[in-house]
Amino acid sequence: MPRLYSLVILVVFLLSNSSAEAGKPKWVKKRPSDRSFYIGIGMAYKKETSGLDYAKKARADALKEMASEIEVNVSANSLMRQFEDNYNFRETFESEISTSAEENLTGYEVKTWENRREYWVLMKLNKDQYTRRKRLDLEMAKKKAASYLLEAREMTGRLQITAALGAYFKAIESLENHLKEDLTYRSIDGNINFGSDIMQDLRHLFSKISITPVNPNYKVSFSKTMEKPLKAMVEFYSSTGRKVPVRNFPVHYKFVQGEGLLQEKATSNPGGEVDSYIQKLESSLKKQQVEVAFDHTVLLREENIKSPLVKFFLPEETIPTAKFNIELQKSDAWLDASESVFGQPTGQKLFSNQLKSHLNETFFNFTQTSEKASYIIEVNANFKKGDIKEGNGYTVYLVFADLHISVTSAETKTEIFSETITGVKGMRPGSFDYALKEARQKLLERFEKGVYPQLEALNF
């Protein structure tokens, strides 16, 4: 009986497999060939993916294969011809064109077939329909780009510079999917070659735009909000030689030397003025620098901001920029330090001098007398001997450290900051002096991690 049952199961399995094989369409068994169609086939195993990811994978593979069949000849009047001497640009664009071809293919037929193990997708695209649709898409893109280009030139003539730049970038975006194709266009005003004409127009336009710092040199206290802005003038030199303020001009401020928090994005007002504030310096460099430059990202769709096409039309050397020199200005302070080591006041004050040096790099210039100081810094450091711990073949010495620091305004005599650190432990073999050295180091580390951030928050 068990043998008969097993035989029945085997027959059913063979019959089901035979039925599944018989039901396979011809295109699954053998790749079809049709001169009138581009064809792509994709297959995914169901067990190798989760959920319906197998269907997405099969469709993506079929689309990629179909797109790879489409040969695109590079026109002599295309943007790609202009990239021939720039391998990096060409390689990037070849990749983009391949991706774009897959994303923009439409009008294809889709067939699917599946069994318990496999999922198959067939895509077919009529070659004649594809050619007509692509020609129409190119003509529409050219018309749109020509419209924006002529609008940009008209805006430039009216001295509406930011609006002109916006129109130029829209013209560039219109050409994003047609980099290998002929980009010449015959308009009422004459022939246009978008690649060369837009680049020449932008270079000429940017050569007439200037960003000039109103005051290029600033002094800023560490961790203190800037009272005066980093102000610049954006102007355009008209054909008559007259300087015209540029309104709504987008710029980006950034540190090119040093580091700090500042208002990064800004737009010029009707008078061409644009400004930003340094909210806090985060670098202790004496000399720092902030750059303000034209911000093209404001005028682009988000998906095109990182497009290498923008870099082609907008090389860094053409972008209007200006720089501000920032000098770190520290507050004057007087240090009143007392330091005790193992119950005795010490004249060397090694730890206090380390702390003074650290504060001098960031917040304060220390004066020779308290009368010249804006702030009085009081430091009290105490290092005490602990136990001597002996074990099998070793002896360890312990030293404990405490610190109290306060900051007082010399003008108002008001204490504006106070903090205490206790229980810092140095532990070393050899002697108490070794343990003392470690206690100093650990106390300084505790100061940097715990007290320093609090001092940064104060407006010295």
Description:
This protein is an alpha+beta fold and 460 residues long. The chain folds into 3 domains: 32-200, no CATH class; 209-329, Immunoglobulins (Immunoglobulin-like); 331-457, Putative neuraminyllactose-binding hemagglutinin homolog like domain (Double Stranded RNA Binding Domain, 2-Layer Sandwich), CATH 3.30.160.180. 37% of the residues lie in helices and 34% in strands. The protein has helices spanning 2-22, 26-29, 53-69, 79-82, 87-104, 127-157, 161-174, 194-207, 308-313, 350-362, 432-457; strands at 37-45, 109-114, 118-126, 184-187, 190-193, 209-213, 217-221, 230-237, 243-245, 250-257, 260-262, 265-267, 273-276, 278-281, 287-294, 321-329, 331-341, 344-345, 364-366, 375-391, 394-409, 415-429. The strands form 6 sheets. Strands 17, 18, 19, 20, 21 and 22 form a 6-stranded mixed β-sheet that branches. Helix 6 (127-157) packs antiparallel against helix 7, helix 6 (127-157) packs parallel to helix 8 (194-207) and helix 7 (161-174) packs antiparallel against helix 8 (194-207). InterPro entries: LPP20-like_dom (IPR024952). Keywords: Signal. This is Lipoprotein LPP20-like domain-containing protein.
